[in-house]
Design a protein that fits this description.
Helices cover 65% and strands 10% of the residues. Strand 2 and strand 3 form a beta hairpin. It starts with a helix and ends with a strand. About 3% of the residues have low confidence.
Amino acid sequence: MVALINAVMYELLFFLAILLGYAFFGGINFVSSKMLWGTLISLLILIPIYTNRALNIFNPTQTAFFSILLLILLVKKESAKKLVSLYPFLFVMTDLLNLNVMYIFRFLFHIEVINFFSLSPYSSFTMGVSVLVLLLLFLFRKKWLDDEIVLSNKQIVSLYIILALTCMMIFYVNHYQRLIHPLKDAALFGFFSVFSATILNSLGVYQAILAKNYSLLEENFRLQQQFHSMQEVYFENILHQSKQTRNFRHDMKAHFQTIAQIAQEHNDQAVMNYIDEIAHLFHFDKQYFYTGNQIIDILLTNLTEKARENNITMSIEGIIPKDLNVDSVDLTIICYNLLQNALEATIREKNDFFSVSFSIKNQQFIFVVKNYVSNEISIENGLIQSRKADKKNHGLGLKNVRDAVERSKGIFDINVKNQQFIARVILPLD
């Protein structure tokens, strides 16, 4: 009976460890049905009892591998691929961590030889310790990097190559440690071998985290380069406009005399043409925005030029303070991506209008962008989940926006209403 309880506890704790592993990587979304979760937990209790009593199978680790895989029934469709691809890695890594704890106990208390997939009277206890270690790792990871760890196909392959090599090493160690007679020596040999394997696999995960950080830095650097280019053009245009204004003031009397003379001839079209020529010559037809925030002014000025080239009208509303108390890099990422996506979507939809508004309310910066969409768009977890064409229209940069908003402790929301795609960002200012 004690062995049976130990086996059930071991499987449930193993299940909890796997969930912590998925939480560590992030990006896995499960259903919220209490009935389905209750059914799965009941199965995890009944399966080890059945295999132990009816089938006389006393190896709960192998049983757990297949029973915990039932998680696939509780995961949302968009997360299924990531869940399956990570499952063997998380399972073996959890078992390696548990084996580390077992070897420490064996060294301290002179316990008998331990097999890689064995059950001992203290297996559930050591698995409980492993769960606590995983919980600490998860909390540390969330504090250091709150974003989802996205693995490329190459990274997943490299993780499994490392895992295969370390598993071969563990089985080799598990076989030859029996030849070492002193319990402490065998335990110490086994511990350092398993610990080395765990560290090696952990370095593979760490490399994936570094790769994600590098890609974020690369993206931020690219955006900053684009923004600096816009900034240079913006200030050059401002200086040029100032110079042209001085020139216009110098020649203003002559221009008024010319306009008055043409007007006396009752040639309205000629007057309009002359005024248009002046506006074009002195760049009075260019729009420069003074919302109060330099970053947004530069982005809007650049965007209006592109919109005008495509015969698109922008409606821009709002006045905001100079100092938003929001990180300038995150503000650039948020505004640039939402504005650029709206413009590109409007061009592809062959529409001629989109709107931008920003305001301060209750110590919050509210930024809203709206544009027309002709097709239905499915939205899940703040991102586009629809046809490739729609993703191309709206999906570019939305993940970067979501990440930047999360870093700023704000709210990012997208929805479609009356064929309008609405992106709303709310950022705290205090």
